[in-house]
Amino acid sequence: MKTQTAEIPEEFQIDNLLNQDTYLVNGQLKKWSGKTTPVYSTIHTVNENGEYAPTLLGSIPYMTEPEANEALEAACDAFDKGKGLWPTMKVADRIECMERFVRQMEKQRDPIVKYLMWEIGKNLSDSQKEFDRTVEYIYDTIEEYKQLDRDCAKFEKRDGVYAHIRRGPLGVVLCLGPYNYPLNETFALLIPAIIMGNTTIFKPAKHGVLLLSPLLEAFKSSFPKGVVNIVYGRGREVAAPIMQSGRIDVLALIGNSKSAVALQDQHPYKNRLRLVLGLEAKNPAIVLSDADLDLTINECIAGALSFNGQRCTALKLVYVQEKIVDEFNRRFAERVDALKFGNPWEEGVQLTPLPEPGKPQYIKGLIDDALAKGASILNEKGGEITENYIYPAVLYPVTKEMRVYEEEQFGPVIPVIPFKNIEEPIDDIASSNYGQQVSLFGKDIRTIAPLIDNLVNLVCRVNLNSSCQRGPDVYPFTGRKDSAVSTLSVHDALRSFSIRTFVASKDTVYNNRILEDLLGSKASNFVSTDYIL
Ligand SMILES: O=C[C@H](O)COP(=O)(O)O
After folding, report:
1. Prediction pTM value
2. Which residue from 128, 138, 422, 475 has the highest number of Cβ atoms inside 10 Å of its Cβ?
3. What percent of the chain has pLDDT over 90?
4. Which one, of 77, 2, 67, 81, lies nearest residue 35 by Cα?
5. 391: CA distance to ligand 1 center in Å?
6. Cβ neighbours of residue 190 under 8 Å, at least 6 residues apart?
């Protein structure tokens, strides 16, 4: 097996087609005999006609409404109006199920890392990081959940009323993950939803779907039936009927707002729907004239171009103070041209093929629009296009009339905007539709400190002399305006997927006995005083 440029090393070859011929519903791996959808890699290899073409990796079931309804029924039955086995299970037992799952998952590192590379073109070290980070996320979630449980054996009393606080599940969760982190971000939704006692229907992203196949058995054998149900297919054929049923309590999605709005609109009782959404962002870097340019350029390269800029946290606008903009541009453009493009498993590769067909042409459209409106491409290789890639272009000067100023490019193009006064980028951030993060580069505390005070009121994370990012996963991950609803992190996600309820009781002998008994037996959801009154 070889690509246009080289033989593929043995350990990274895909030997056989991975046809996902079973699907997980109601605790069973059911045989799929219907229509299937082929799954292609963006990486081109020689096909049977001797031509280089996207590599066929395997297939997934082409599901439609009947299978969507089957999964929905299974999830609703498992929740069983709050009295199902899973939502009422003891904390220690839920933890045991999750530990069983993660231990099995750890054994699947090699095939999952390999499929991350083939399916979405993520380079080897980032694919390994995605896997390891996910495993760590699950262990951290288990610890956080134990901590909530440890806080439980307490009562709070006010005005003669005891409050016996619980954190309970919300019900049935529809969970949709993104293609750029098909494992880590999907699990950042799924794992907290499950451990809090919800039941789930999960639809993997279109790219990054086969890599979940090695985990189906682990899901099946770790959780009671109906807790995890997996559907494949197009949103309008599987997710829409699920939403239209009105039986979904939580929509958990990391992706674009168009899909999020369309799905919410399908739900007949929107007010009942809890949302956990990670959406678009247009995170800017602000480079002040006293910034350390070596450090700033390193961070801006990583921030704008890790995984080819296909990250919601990527730097998507770079504001540079006029005094230093020429020097910044020259050095930045040189560095971008020095980045290595290649297949994900090749040593030192930073830029890799893009998984979305049509993405290079979309990025080219943004570049052409900017050029027509007065910008130039600063780097020599910028905008060079092949079937599955477009070399990153540094565009300057970018203005508000250009599409690349407004649209979330989610790919390799970096718009640079000069500014004189700091009010200019601040005004832009304040009037943007997004509000996830900002990177601020500079040294003078007299300028920086008031800017931070301002920026924390416009976005949710200010990165001081460093690029924007989500991790470490124990930190809150959220956004203002159209960037997010609810917060994800090891700590916050457990709250996002649960609700505080409580038993209130007055001080009588029999009430106290009942409460003592509830606490002693720890019968169901734990009692926690963490958010008391
Ligand atoms: O696509 C958005 C991701 O949450 C980015 O995560 P990251 O900053 O860890 O790459």
Report:
1. 0.95
2. 138
3. 85
4. 67
5. 21
6. 175, 177, 200, 202, 228, 252
